[in-house]
Design goal:
The chain is of the alpha/beta class and 210 residues long. Helices cover 41% and strands 17% of the residues. It has 8 helices and 7 strands. Strands 1-7-6-2-5-3-4 form a 7-stranded mixed β-sheet, sandwiched between helices.
Length: 210
């Protein structure tokens, strides 16, 4: 039985999205994704606008199962697509136990899980503190964490404006983040989270010089 990545309808949707992101939003991929061809992984990225999941998906061959704020998930124009690919709505501040359980199930089922650890959209070109839930899920499931970084003129745009007006977007990926997984105590979670944030920050610094 084909996976969702190989369903003809999903492949067609991915082609439309790739054209939309690359032609209309001038998406430039500065460093390609290194996600595994099969099996579970977590993809973490900074959060610049409601357009981010589409931009990142345009650069990735595999379908990404996104954890996203419910207000984006419930957008009338895109809600059907998010439901179709199994996106996970997160309510409130991001501490949503139902969403966390769904995310862990997705990883156990071999999906790539996409997360924005800042928990909300950046107002400026600076990373906000990463939440520690990503590190906890990674430690519990033993899956690799792949960092990515987005930049461009879509940052801090209202949702409709980010989708409807042409932007200039840049995206980069990096190697999986290495961190200790022998404990899930506070110190270990803080250290792992800091490593993830540092990996994204390093890409952001390079993109500023680009």
């Amino acid at each position: 039985m084909p996976t969702i990545d190989h369903l003809p309808s999903v492949r067609a949707l991915k082609r439309v999205n790739a054209f939309y992101c690359r032609a209309f939003h001038h998406l430039e991929v500065l460093a390609p994704p290194g996600l595994p061809a099969t099996g579970p992984a977590i993809l973490v990225c900074n959060h610049t606008s409601g357009l981010d999941p589409l931009l990142i998906q345009a650069a990735c061959p595999r379908v990404i199962t996104w954890m996203m704020a419910r207000e984006f998930y419930d957008m009338a124009a895109l809600s059907w697509a998010f439901k179709w690919i199994g996106a996970i709505p997160v309510t409130g501040s991001g501490r949503d136990s139902t969403a966390t359980r769904a995310a862990i199930r997705a990883l156990h089922d071999g999906h790539v899980l996409g997360i924005f650890p800042e928990g909300r959209i950046e107002r400026h070109r600076e990373l906000m503190p990463f939440q520690e839930g990503v590190a906890l899920m990674a430690m519990k499931t033993k899956v690799p964490v792949h960092p990515a970084c987005l930049d461009g003129t879509m940052r801090n745009k209202p949702m409709v404006q980010a989708f409807m007006e042409s932007q200039d977007a840049a995206l980069a990926f990096s190697d999986p983040v290495e961190f200790h997984r022998t404990s899930t105590d506070k110190v270990a979670l803080t250290q792992a989270t800091a490593r993830m944030q540092s990996a994204v920050q390093l890409m952001m610094d390079k993109m500023r010089r680009y």
